[in-house]
Amino acid sequence: xxxxxxTIQLIxxxxxxxxxxxxxxxxxxxxxxxxxxATPTYGPGASLEDPIPSTAPRQPGLPSEYRNASPAELDLRxxxxxxxLREKLVILGHFYQRDEVIQYADFVGDSFQLANAARTxxxxxxxVFCGVHFMAETADMLSRPDQAVxxxxxxxxxxxxxxxxxxxxxxxWEQLDEILGQELTPDGRQxxxxxxxxxxxxxxxxxxxxxxxxxxxxSNAAQVLTWAFERGQRVLFFPDQHLGRNTAKxxxxxxxxxxxxxxxxxxxxxxxxxxxxxxxxxxxxxxxxHKRFTVEQIAYARQRHPGVHVIVHPECPMPVVDAADSAxxxxxxxxxxxxxxxxxxxxxxxxxxxxxxxxxxYPQHTIFCLDSIICPCSTMYRxxxxxxxxxxxxxxxxxxxxxxxxPESIAVPARLALETMLKLxxxxxTPA
Length: 432
Ligand code: 13P
Ligand code: SF4
Prior knowledge:
The protein is of the alpha/beta class. The strands form 4 sheets. A 5-stranded parallel β-sheet has the order 7-6-8-10-9, with helices on both faces. It has a 4-stranded parallel β-sheet with strand order 3-2-4-5, sandwiched between helices. It has helices at residues 4-14, 64-67, 71-85, 99-102, 111-117, 133-142, 166-180, 202-210, 221-231, 241-250, 272-277, 295-304, 318-323, 330-339, 352-361, 385-396, 408-423, and strands at residues 23-24, 89-94, 107-109, 126-130, 148-150, 190-197, 214-216, 232-238, 260-261, 280-283, 309-312, 326-327, 345-349, 366-369, 373-374.
């Protein structure tokens, strides 16, 4: 099966009357990512319509020698730089990266695994993170101070992470304080424990670390919530309402005890009574990649492929998770497919680069994306071999470009919350 990039180019070519094998959510996906560096958007793909904060980092123009290089030339240059840098360099790649980038990664994994991987090469002088901004910040905070973490394209952010900012979360916390007070419960627990999803800024991780809170990823969210309830009566979960709701629901928490906090409304749009009886307060954030999956797509897959196993990521809305056979992190999805008997059929609800790669790696199975429209994560898509070649060749010359560096005043409290997260390892999950 061709890579997502190749598929998109093929769709572009065939998008003539009478030839539409599939379609994309944006014809601009066929353009190079540097065409969007000057535009104040997340770029083409699933987050295209999401409002981007004016403070979101921008990528200065990529030099023309990289923009104009052919894929074969970039390949030669990247391999040569990697060979020259040897153990001074480690490249990390998230599962959602394009195959054209993943081929150079020393570690490929989900956000939990990559957070750990950042630590496994203490001798590497540079960690080039082919993922998104919050992942690179985390790698910076978990790596040695003299290691440089590099994000090849600074515009590779995350629209979900941007849905919660320090000011609005602090404002929410102060409003909760007024309603709930700060007294410990009779059994000695806090009124609220803040839990931030890994997909959040370093500042929000620090916010949690300063208030007895923690970070979670989609692979250890249940362990983190259990940990948080041992220490608090309620959890304020941000920014992804869906991961929070799906995880808490699976732990038996009733939906009416999980109000949503809308940062644009007083008390988040809730009554004081609802906040007092809440167990989990869900921030009004979501992932535009996973929001695309629907119950109708699952019904259609079941109708077309009787016996299909539907696996979705827990960033999908609750009705989609409920209608699926199983739900789990990207690593869970990878492991479920690796463990399946030959001839299995899977419909997957997660980012298309991972789904299409799994379909290529496991030709003995039938694997397809629930969504027939090709719509990658806009921000993961901003990393391209052109930027990788640019930062690697600079490293070879001793120059560090696009360094992600979290100030110690933020990193110290954020590390507290991250270290707790790393201790709460994902429970081994078995697909249904
Ligand atoms: P995981 O890699 O933790 O499953 O997260 C998916 C994701 O959306 C990363 O941005
Ligand atoms: Fe953010 Fe969603 Fe992209 Fe992950 S897939 S980086 S949550 S927008």
